[in-house]
Structures are given as structure tokens and as C-alpha cells.
Amino acid sequence: MKNHLFLLFTSTIFVGSVSAQGLYQASNKALEDAPLPFKWNAGLNAIYDDNVSSGNSQDPGLKESALSYNPYVGLSVVENSGQTTWNVSGMLGVIYYPDAPSVSGTPIDDLSNQSNLSASLTHKLNDQLTLSTYNMISREREPDYSYGVASSHAGKGEYVSMSTDESASYRWTKRLGTVTGIRLGATQYPESDSKDNDRNTYQLSNQFRFQLGEQSVLTSSYRFGESFSQGEGADVADQYLTVGGEYRFTPTVIGIAQAGAQFHETTTGTASQDASTTNPYLESSLNAKLNRQFNVKSFLRYSAESDSLNQNNIVFAEHRMLRLGITNEWSISPKMSVINGLDYMPGTFMGGVNKNDGLASNDLSETLVSSYVTLKMKFSDFMTGSLSYTYVNNVSDLTDALGRTQTYNRSRVSLGLNVNF
To answer: Which CATH architecture has domain 2-420?
Structure first.
């Protein structure tokens, strides 16, 4: 009983920093299979992409198709001593175009990164105090939308994202505890001529947790964070006041939710366009393993985001955005499984000002939908094949430097082979 209560109490230790771990952050340790302590894997994907640069689908000069190859090697190491748990995982990969495509006469790099590394450590000093750290870095061309880095990377090439989260969980009584943390992060676009969307961030947080029973915890949180543009983009300060809870419906189904207010301040460099607003904030996630064959994860978040505030010489004060996603894995048989998911991300850019003439911009909207399905076939204990299809549709009021719309659709088909040992 005591161990179960402690697990429920600490299972959302990172809930205040979901942007570092991804939005599918609901912990479900009671149902997840223990991974192997040390595991290598390597593979190769052949990818057909009908819109490499995410260009306007109605302009034949912008929509360019190409074949690419994605070789990679990965490693995961997990160790759990009961008192200390650490997990390191990473992938080193590239995307290579044997026949480098060009868009409107401008060539695209024939080689780009698709790599990431993460490391986490949790150490239980005693029955009251637990220390945790989570660190990640990635350099990729294709964004993982569940990490909330940006809604669309069209025209920006590779991006680098890095963060570190440190937190301390302290149990003051059998029912009351706190989780206090700090997060540092950065996002960069090395291939972009402008540094306006390159950002450095930090965030401080404190969460009170009250244990109602074996299955439920009430929470209240305060977070303060700032985000600084490395160019002429907007600087942002945010405060969050939220209340919420965590409920384990069954040993294999857990949900997390919090809601409240976000106090959002933006400095654009033009005093008349600086903004201070109060917005609703909502965040929730669900992890449900319904049986041995079917596992579902979902997330929802509505907030004012600090990323992508600079768009084609216009600096916006706010980027209000809803992120809704669902993914599930269905094990049809011991050898075959299907993974599919959907991300739906409507957003509105508000309070814009043109850097060149100082004139105010109309509010602009952008809605991105990404859906995917992957079929996996296990040929042996060491070899797995996969066939994937991904479709992205972006409907946008935004334009590039030449006034061309950033509305596009894109399809990608991937055939892959993976070995693990």
C-alpha cells in the first residue's frame, strides 16, 4: 500500500514541464513492460516525399517530390536499483537525398540530421525526498509535433532543440507534498538567415500535491518563465496559476489534468505593440492500456506559446494555440502491430507589427493536421519491418518573404527495416 501511494504521488514529477518530455506525459509505470537494460538497434528507411520543402501545393514550382534514405543507429540503457532509476536513449541518423531536389531553382541540402538524445535520472534519497533530472537534445529536419517545438517548420530547414529539467519532490506528510523544479531550454534554426525565431528559455515551478486516496491526487501549481529571442523577435514572460488532479481509474488507466490562468507579457521592441494579456490555460493527458493488445495515449493543451512569434518581418505578441493529439498501438498478433495517430493544431497569431514600417498587422490563423499509420511486422526476435504513411495538411494565412501562402499538403511513404541486439 505504501509503495503504491508513493508511486501515485510521484508519477507526474515532471508534469510542470511537459514541453521537455513531450505532451504525452501521463505516467503509467504500473502497466509498462520493463525494457531491456541495454539495447542497440539499427535500421534503414526508404522515404518517398511528395512535398519536400512543405511548399504551396498549388504552385508547381514550390511542391517538389523526392526519394530519400534514412539510415540510423540507436541505443537505450535502463537501470533500476529500487532507489535509483536512470534511462539513456538516443538515435543518430541522417536523411539523404541521392538526387537532391530544388524548389524554384534553390537546391535543398542532400544531407540533413535526424538525431536525438535523452537522459533521465531519478534518485530516492529517503521516503520523503526524491531528486530527478531529465535532459534532451535533438537536431532534426522533421519535427515531432507532440513536443510542441513549433506548429510548422516550412522553409526553416533543420532545427536544434535542447532542454534540461531538474526537480525535487518532497513529501511533507502522508498526504501533502511539493514538487519544485527549474527548466532551461533553447531552440535554434542553424540554416535560417534570421535569428528571430532562435530562443532561450527558463522556467521555475512549484506544485503542491494532496493525496486524496489510493487512486487520486489533487494538485495546484505556479510557474514563471521567460523566453528570449536571439534576434529581433519578441521576448516573452509567462506566469501560470493552475489547479488539477491525477486519477488512476484502473491499474492500467491513468489521467492527468490541470486548468487555470496564463498571464502573458510580450516585448516586441515597439512600445505601442507590447502586450499584457490574461488567457485560459488547459492541459490534460491520458494513458490507457485497455488490454495486452491495445494501448491508447492522448493529450490536449491550450495556451499562448512563445515559439514562432516572428513571421516574415512581422513580430506577433501572441500565438494562441490548441494542441490535440491521440496515438494508439494495436497488437494484432505476436508478429504484427499497427500504430496510428492524429495531431490537430489550430492557432492564431495576434498583436502583430511589421518591423519595416511599424504598421499593425491583422490577426492571422494557421491550422495544421498531421495523421499517420504504421504497420510493423516482426520477422524474428531481432528483425522488424515497417510500412508507414504520413499526411500533413497546413492551412495558413501566413506568407513567405515573396508573399506566397504557406498553405500546403504533404504525403510521405516510408518502407523500413530494423534490427535490434
So the answer is: Beta Barrel (2.40)
